[in-house]
Specification:
The chain is an alpha/beta fold and 323 residues long. Helix content is 36%, strand content 14%. The chain has 13 helices and eleven strands.
Length: 323
Amino acid sequence: MAEAEHRPQLLIFRPPPVFTAHEDEFSKKFDILKAYQSPLPTDLFITTYAQSVKAVLCSGASPITADLIRHLPSLKFVVTASAGVNHIDLQECRRRGISVANAGVVFSEDVSDVAVGLLIDVLRRISAGDRFVRAGLWPVIDEYPLGSKLGGKRIGIVGMGSIGSEVAKRLEAFGCTISYTSRKKKLSTSYPFYQNVLELAFNCDILVICCALSDQTRHMINGEVMSALGKDGIIINIARGAIINEKELVRRLVNGEIGGAGLDVFENEPSVRKEMLGLYNVVLSPHKAAFTEESFFDAFQLVVGNLEAFFSNKPLLSPITDD
């Protein structure tokens, strides 16, 4: 008990996967306040620690809302174990002077690998072929639909940040032509830049969604963009599900108005629209693009580093700042 009193308190409402994978190491460094294991109702648990808790560890499964922040008057630091921060009310954090840090770029390479994997799978029908063989159809059906070559495809990257840059680097090695749209033109790359996603879609065969979810990007991939991409176009999403108008995407996939999709994220996770489950040209993954032992260890180290920096009044390692 005395040892716990000397460790900084860290409040967790629902354990992020990175925390679960390294819980023992976290517990050696911090006094973990586990709201998810408490017999107390959450609001009473919050009240119990409201005056003492200065730091919260969160993920997409435990949003940090303005209402929650108002019930934690001593809160000064929010750290998320994810790269995305759409589950944190950044405006309220700024208003209250609460620092925020994320997982930085530790997941970028692994997520980019999955983006490329999903694309190859859709083009070459790997998962569809696996189902075909397992169903015993190979001996009785002579013909199997042709796939499509990856090399030479025109790839449009939506969001040329850390993940987008890694996706571009990988697909360029396959012989693809890269262009992109982003909040602003990147001086660090010579890829052609388009002012908006509609212009990009008109000039691409494939869109790879790598941007953050915000009010501006919600349903950004809409019917107009899908029409611009064309009936043979493919959409890959390893960002956030709500960036795509999922209902419209499903309608077009069912009606053959778009070529295919590879999705690691969905609009209402973990629910997936049932129409997609039987489509051979759709590859589905359960929002696990970042899930590797290596990236989890790197994320653990970064989260701990940010927490130790905060409690020591040192600069954060991966702060979220206004830009």
